[in-house]
Amino acid sequence: MDAGYFREQRDAPSINTPIVNVNITEAGVPEEKVLLLHVRNDKLTSPSRVNIAGNAFVGTSRAFLEFYPKYYETFWHWISIKKFIGSDQFVMTETCRRYKANCHPFFPGRFKSWFAMAYAMSGKRPFNEVSSQYLFLDEPPKDVPKVPSGMSVSFCKDLIVTGSDQNILNNC
């Protein structure tokens, strides 16, 4: 959880008090989903669309092992189409939009409640229902390029260059 959650003394837990006081799977988050905070409701056309807060996310090892590759597939897809990334929150938002089966965005009751996850994890706010306002795709995209693995990736003269294209890099 981001340290900003506890910048105000009133929000900081007492010494030796756990920050997380709930079991999210017992509270209703499926084991295969990462719990995230639906913090804004930016339109799909927004150039800086942030619907998921990047300051806290919670899940089982299974959830993260399934979510992690989806995040990097989204990240690499955006690189391959030369889309501006700019922030992990942009990628997180799009990953959840694409892969509903891996995300559990909860809505804390109002938008821009940037630190609502602390209240959820302390047991003071429910988080078991997926936000009805989150804009999921019906199906994940099928045309996503494979994420390169075990090779260098670079950029040269408006081209994405992978390890197999080193001759291009030599001429940059």
Topology:
Layout: E1 34-37, H1 61-80, H2 88-98, E2 103-106, H3 116-121, E3 153-156, E4 159-162, H4 166-170
Parallel strand pairs: 1-2
Antiparallel strand pairs: 3-4
Structure commentary:
The protein is an alpha+beta fold and 172 residues long. It is elongated and about 60 Å long. Helix 1 packs across helix 2. It has a two-stranded parallel ribbon with strand order 1-2. The mean pLDDT is 85. Helix content is 24%, strand content 9%. A hairpin with a 2-residue loop joins strand 3 and strand 4. The protein has four helices and four strands; from the N terminus they run βααβαββα.
Assembly state of the chains shown: single chain
Biggest sheet, open or closed, and with what strands and sense?
A: 2 strands, parallel
Compressed to H and E, one letter per element, the order equals: EHHEHEEH
Order of strands across the main sheet = 1-2
Mean pLDDT: 85
Put simply, the count of helices is: 4
State the shape. Answer: elongated
> Which stretches of 5+ consecutive residues score pLDDT under 50?
none
The structure class reads: alpha+beta
Helix share, percent: 10-25%
Q: What is the count of β-strands?
A: 4
The percent range for strand residues is 5-15%
**Termini, distance in Å?**
42 Å
Radius of gyration: 19 Å
